[in-house]
Amino acid sequence: MKTKFVKNAVGRMIPETINGKKVTPFKGVGKHRPTGNKYGPPIPTCIDFSSDGNKVVKSLNDALKKCGMKDGMTISTHHHLRNGDLVNNTIFDIAHKMGVKDLVWFPSASFPCNEPITKHLENGTINRIEGSMNGALGRFASHGKMKGTAVLRSHGGRVQAIQDGEVKIDIAVLAAPSSDVFGNANALDSSSSCGVLGYSKADFLYADKVIVVTDNLVDFPNMPMEIEGNYVDYVVVVDKIGIPEKIISGTTQITKSPDRIYVAELTAKFLEESGILKDGCFMQAGAGGTSLAIGNFVHQILKAKGWKSQVGFGGTTKYMVQMLEEGTMEHILDAQAFDLGAVASISENKNHHQYSVFNAYNYHSKGNLTSMMDIMILGATEVDLNFNGNVATHSDGYLLHGIGGWQNCLHAKNVILPIPLFRDRIPVIRDEVTTICGPGELIDVIVTERGIAINPLRKDLIKQMKKSKLPIKTIQELKDEAERICGKPRAIEFEEKVIAAIKWVDGTVIDVVKQVKE
Amino acid sequence: MAKIAEAGNYGPKIKSDCKITLQLKKNGGLKIEVISKVKALFDDQINKLCKDVLKFYGIKDAIFKIEDTGALDYIIAARIEAAVKQLMKTDKEYLLPMIPENKFQTKNDRNRRSRLYLPGNTPKLALNAGIHNPDGIILDLEDSVAPAKKNEARFMVRNSLRTVNFYGAERMVRINQLPMGLEDLEFIVQHNVNLILLPKCESANQIKELNAEIKKLNKGKRKIWLMPIVESALGVINSYEIAASENVVSLAIGLEDYTADLGTQRTNEGKETFFARSQVVNSARAAKIQPIDSVFSDVSNMEALKQNVLTSKSLGFDGMGCIHPRQIPVIHENYAPNDKEIDRAKKIVNAFIIATEKGLGVVSLGSKMIDPPVVKRAQYTIEQAINVGKLDSDWRKE
Questions:
Q1: Domain ranges in chain A?
Q2: Count of A–B CB contacts within 8 Å?
Q3: Which of A183, A405, B103, B288 would give a disulfide with A229, using CB separation of 3.0 to 4.6 Å?
Q4: Cα gap A264→A294, rounded to integer Å
Q5: pLDDT (tens digit, 9 = 90+) per residue, A374-417?
Q6: CA atoms of B3 and A239, how far apart (whole Å)
């Protein structure tokens, strides 16, 4: 049977079904309206649980068995232990030993440490991954070797998919730096401390079965209870859930590259001159080296002017904590702690609040935190002449990154992408991006080391910057300059097979990724 | 067995470069192997360029391999040429077009506050050097290039001079010490180098020798300025005759070698180099050229750099070398006149303009007469202040 493709609102061809399920092609920003009710997991009863509140079972193997793990189930995990995670791979080692097939792994993100998962994709234990795919997993999928079709969602899109019942989680396996016997868990004060567990909230609320895995069983009550014991079926105690030094991301150092610092400085100057940076502004910047450098420049500007950012949101680092402590930021809303400084600050600073993505990023909810942000600093692997952005694939067609919160963050008032004009000869600005992850109408400014391009839709910014001495250029000029230096890359070819779908924040499909041609 | 030539660099930490392996054969045609990080997007272009260069040198039978990490065409071409010339004697040069932005000439007295050193054989660092807005960039053939790489660096420097846009920075090359440095000239003189730095310079005779060789090669008769670097006790003693030589527009001092020559250590206070620095400033000023200070090597300490620049400025230097782009803004800002100096310069220039308008022969400020050199100095200060954005160009309208 030949798959039928339809063109979506950004001109990409989308198959009518993915993994046997009918999908809705992207209709445009804010055009899709959901109907019906939220998904509800089966009703549990306390009569199935021990009255002394003790849910500890002797191993993960046991817990998975008791949860009735079987072929075709969807297993969810969170990624708060980042590249130090020691739990997620073992789930599938166990499944493989049990002879279970065709599972769907539904992580909130994957990391290089999850490379061993490829063998379970090969041996049939896992049918597909619905979540981010970094490095080896993306390469595996790009070669067309994954049995099912991968589905990539943003962090908010993942919550939306769970809430709307697009994805039904059979078993959530949630690693926790501390838990009591009842399953009340948090991520503070332990050797594997990762600060917050925000990405697991939708999982424990909506999953059919919930397993908490900890290496730090503490006395009842374990407060604060970020994972609430009343949603937990089993608690498993293991020797170690993570490698502490790898839990902390390698990206939380301000870049030392002079070129990137230059781009960061240019970005900060743009924010200042355009008036986007102002007293009381809401801001979000990622934890990449350039973003951190921008944060640092912004911190200096705020300090010099006696201004204060009212809210800083996002993956939090010691640099943001410094702003809080030195009075250039009033509140931190923390969805993910990226370094030890951030982890410690949550306990120490009363204005450093844990804030779940469940609230922040879910498009199908009663408000959108990201649309309240004045300043949003994001990255991209590619941007095109229409300002469409790509974060999932590289220009050679390989799927190598997850979407993370990127799509969700595009809804901010001013979305700014500081990017190099080219990377290793490959121009970052293209005629058309390889994969559309975000529509151009939401991307406002591109800052490169050789010039700044403002989206023509932002007439206000263009007017504001008319007299600026900053190197304002058109995106076409930037693209031409890159191609003059690098040469024009040839168009790459793909096989027919769709290996991944890119979901938009409302559950529609904005693009698909095809198998690379060898 | 036929000799195998290798040129360039390839490895996990190498970016924007390539390594060529070439073996000439008697028959069997061209066997070209392309290993490239950017193969999916650029294999056609890389293939075509490799064939082009080999054809240019009349190579029809060879085993050729390129291992590439995103090298641009001019880099690949330089590497292939370096490999080819290890295997055959030829005067032919494979030249890519000179970009129009690199055709400018520079003035003898232009700003030379910062000059950024770029290792001549590390193309990655040259690509974005210009965006940091140094007054000059130096493609270095001397100390930053390993002895075994000297020859291939020459092709790289030549191609960089032609092809890389440094966005208006003066394009300088530091050649090797004489006599080896004379052999470097044929790779740069015809490719519109603006200024040549001569390291370890000790006498005016060396400058003469250099000028003579440049003249021989300089068919376009373009101006090529010289900046000798004095790096020894003898050089310091002879600094005036060096400074007063033809085409010399700046005189620089290199303190690492100088202190070694003295048999002492370089310290932060710099007492041990005070004499030499002052001597170089004095010689340069006597010859009416720019005195230029040594590099500051602690690239992570911007505060110490700032203090170093302020000292350097107070000694009379106009600029210094830098080895990291982040040093550039600190250098520009601190060689620039401070507020007090600007205020005083404004008053003097104002008085001068008023005196000229009134047709007065004598400029005076209050009860004091102002000498013409002081006026000239004040005008220079104003120019500098405008240049770094400390003063509006229409400051007199305020």
A1: 47-130+167-247, 258-492
A2: 55
A3: A183
A4: 5
A5: 999 999 999 999 999 999 999 999 999 999 999 999 999 999 99
A6: 59
Domains A47-130+167-247 and A258-492 share a fold: yes
ipTM of this complex prediction, to 2 decimal places: 0.89
Instruction: Judge: B70–A450 Cβ closer than 8 Å, yes or no.
Output: no
d(CA A458, CA B11): 44
Phi, psi torsion values for B181, nearest 5 degrees = -60, -30
Residue A251, pLDDT score? 52
Question: By the CB < 8 Å criterion, does B239 face chain A?
Answer: no
Q: From CA B54, how far away is CA B21, in angstroms rounded?
A: 13
A497: its two tokens: 């097979």
| Residue A72 zone, left/alpha/beta (φ > 0; ψ -120 to 50; rest) | left
* Cβ pair A449:B42 closer than 8 A: no
pLDDT of residue A249: 57
> Is pLDDT at B126 greater than 70 in this prediction?
yes
Shortest distance between the Cα of B177 and any Cα of chain A, in A, equals 30
Rounded CA separation B33/B312 (Å): 53
Strand A74-77 vs strand A150-152: parallel, antiparallel, or unpaired?
A: unpaired
Domain A47-130+167-247 part of CATH 3.50.50.60: no
Residue type present at position B305: L
Which residue of B44, B74, B99, B131 to mutate against A (max A Cβ within 10 Å)?
B131
Encode A266-286: b = buried (16+ Cβ within 10 Å), e = exposed: bbbbbbbebebbeeebbbbbb
- Report pTM: 0.92
Contact B40 A396 (CB under 8 A): yes
Q: Give me the long-range contacts of A238-241 (CB less than 8 A, separation at least 24).
A: A238/A60, A238/A86, A238/A87, A238/A213, A238/A214, A239/A215, A240/A86, A240/A192, A240/A215, A241/A81, A241/A85, A241/A86, A241/A87, A241/A175, A241/A176, A241/A177, A241/A192, A241/A213, A241/A214, A241/A215
How deeply is B28 buried, as exposed, middle or buried, from its count of CB atoms within 10 A (0-12, 13-18, 19+)?
exposed
Tens digit of each residue's pLDDT (9 = 90 or more) over B319-374: 999 999 999 999 999 998 989 999 999 999 988 888 888 887 778 887 888 888 88
**CA–CA separation, B1 and B342 (whole Å):** 71
Question: Which pLDDT tens digit goes with each residue over A193-228?
Answer: 777 888 899 999 999 999 999 999 999 999 989 999
Question: Could you give the angle at the alpha carbon of A345 between the alpha carbons of A343 and A350, nearest 5°?
Answer: 130
User: Which of chain A's residues have a Cβ under 8 Å away from the Cβ of B44?
Assistant: 490
For chain B, domains (ranges, CATH) are: 4-87 (3.30.230), 101-335 (3.20.20.60), 339-397 (no CATH)
Task: Supply the pLDDT for residue B396.
Answer: 81
Q: Does domain A258-492 have CATH number 3.40.1080.10?
A: yes
* Residue B162 contacts A, CB cutoff 8 Å: no
